[in-house]
Amino acid sequence: MTKLLYWIGCLTTYRFPKIAEATVEAFMKMKENPVLLGEDEGCCGDLLLLTGQHKEAEKNAKKVVAKIESKKIDTLVTGCAGCYRAFTKGLKEVGITPTFQVLHTSQFLENQVKSGKLSFKPSNMKVTYHDPCELGRLSDVYDPPRNVLNAIPGLQLVEMATARNLARCCGAGGGAWGVYTELAEKAGRARIINEAVPTGAAALVTACPSCYMNFYRTIKRERPQLKIYDLMEIVNMAL
Length: 239
Description:
The chain is an alpha/beta fold and 239 residues long. The chain has 2 domains: 4-111, Rossmann fold (3-Layer(aba) Sandwich), CATH 3.40.50; 119-238, 3-Layer(aba) Sandwich (Rossmann fold). The protein has helices at 10-15, 17-29, 46-50, 54-69, 81-93, 105-114, 143-150, 176-179, 181-196, 209-222, 231-238; strands at 4-7, 75-78, 101-104, 126-129, 156-158, 203-206, 227-230. A 4-stranded parallel sheet has the order 5-4-6-7, with helices on both faces. It is globular.
């Protein structure tokens, strides 16, 4: 049996622990018992890479990879688009080849669906999906999240005016939300008001905590009738 490690990520851990809780609950329903690093998890180093701090990124990566490999796991699964990019392309950038496989939660779930190991309860929800930049444009992961959503009986997935490689950015990535908060929120608002709302979807689904954070603030303030979910929250509800 594959030994999984669930890498939660800083933003999910500190700002949206309910996403981590939903993910672990979903794994347990799937009869998986993922390894968790808890307080020893640390940071993936994605922001170091995005801001060009390669020496610090390499130092951090060596420490993090050694910690993970000490757990003798086969596969690292993460629901954070930034962490996924850091553990795939990022490690290559600093010359590190891990012994473990890296999957985004959407890829892991897609594999489970395709192998017949995973099936869902019906849902009558109408949703639209937002492509995170680091999962989409920077990692070319477009189909897995959609295939998982489409595998839920009765769930209706509608696309926004811009999607996949043309999807508008949420505005929060690359540290923009921390440095240019007003601009980041303006970009997030445009995505919600101009593209998500016109689809008529009851919920906006994404697979990145940075996107989730920026959308959450605007939705709570201006469109409380529109729900915001991480992909794993939708999956947990359908299991």
